[in-house]
Design a protein that fits this description.
The structure holds two protein chains of two kinds.
Chain A (H helix, E strand, L loop, with lengths): L1 H17 L2 H4 L3 E7 L2 E9 L2 E2 L4 E6 L5 E6 L5 E4 L3 H6 L3 E6 L5 E6 L1 H4 L7 H5 L17 H14 L3 H11 L4 H23 L5
Chain B lengths: L1 H18 L3 E6 L3 E2 L6 E10 L4 E3 L6 E6 L2 E4 L5 E5 L2 E9 L4 E8 L3 E3 L4 E13 L14 E5 L6 E2 L3 E8 L2 E2 L4 E6 L16 E4 L5 E5 L4 E10 L4 E3 L2 E16 L5
Parallel strand pairs in B: 2-11, 11-21, 13-21
Antiparallel strand pairs in B: 1-3, 3-4, 3-8, 5-6, 5-9, 7-8, 9-11, 10-11, 12-14, 14-15, 14-18, 16-17, 16-19, 19-21, 20-21
Chain lengths: 202, 256
Amino acid sequence: MQYYIVRYCLACLLVICFSGTGFAHRVNIFAYVDGDAIQVECYFSKSQKVTHGKLTFSDLKTGVILHEGTTDTQGMFRFHPDMNFLESGHGLNIQLYAGEGHQNHWQIEAEELEALLPVQPARQETESAPQPPVTKTLHGIDCNELEELIGKIMDSKLTPIRQAIAAQQDSTPTLQDIIGGIGWILGLLGLATYIRYRPRQQ
Amino acid sequence: MWKSSLLALVLTLALSSTALAHFGMVIPSDSIVENRKDATIDIELSFSHPMEQAGMPLTAPKAFQVITDGKASDIRTSLKPIKIMDHDAWKGQYTIRKPGVYQFVMEPQPYWEEAEDCFIIHYTKTYVAAFGEEEGWDQPAGLKTEIIPLTRPFGNYAGNVFCGQVLLDGKPVPGAEVEIEYYNRDKKYTAPNACMVTQVVRADADGVFTYGIPFAGWWGFAALNTSDKKMSYKGKQKDVELGAVVWMEFVAPSVR
């Protein structure tokens, strides 16, 4: 009898543990091209990640399964798609199974995956579409074109590295900070000068 | 004769101030982002009587920021001048790059309101939730005065009740008066009478107020306080109205 009570209590405890805020929410999946791979993040919320969630990567066009994997304890998974798939020019579908009733998916369009293809010299020769201007000089590009081009590049690169750069940019000193800093320097110099030349009592 | 015309003037002023509430406005193109292709958000900044669609000029805001994860970024440089309700207004743009709750916050330059003989500063904000992440919607933006939502400020149905707390200098404002208006785009609705242009509720002793949203669209909540500091206008010290304004979208369910 006592055994059953203990078991019942344990079951209740487990239910309470797992019915936290996270499980009340839907499950989320977010993926982006990051360097040489696709970074997948799975989460119920910021503070509750999907651990050991099953991921299935498939060709968006043909439905062929390319790879299967499991998220780590941080809800992360890194996928290196093979060259055959990348060269097909198809998009990618990522399906997440995080247990009964917890499924979601994310699609990455073919254009975003292009960033994973190695840069081929042939491409630069037959350049007709506005590719990233690696070999192009700035001559002959008007401001609007340049703005559009930069916008395109910005949009296609959504890596955390860029996020980190953006984050750092946020903390760059403003004009106010610089003027404030100069003020501090002048103030300290003034103080030093005063101490150096102050009238000494004999 | 003098007395009665003075009385009429006073009445007009009194009535017009209740019927026509000022609202700083920050309206994003979407309150929820689910797909990467929708991640670039346009944000319209203006100053108006939103129900009556009467605009006022908004000079270049003093600050325009996006706050996520407790970190603020200045996005003022994205602002371009546009016209909203035939008056000077601004349009900004921001591309959301990762999951999170994003608060877009505008601090305008003080606006001199001749009719009310005071300056108006409306600290105005709105929320955009991206890629399924919802945590952090209850975090203050750290403004001089603001409404802290007690109801999640996105993903709400029309008919839901919105609950919020009014803060001034980080402290609750007991009995704060909150004015509520609908953003009456294209003059879709007409108020049956002048009293119904602006809805009014008063906060309790903890600065907490509640309002049930009657129909779908963007709704603005403005909690108004008078600053303890005065500002000079033509050499005279004048009151400064501080508004804590929040805009939220309330949506009708789709029918299959």
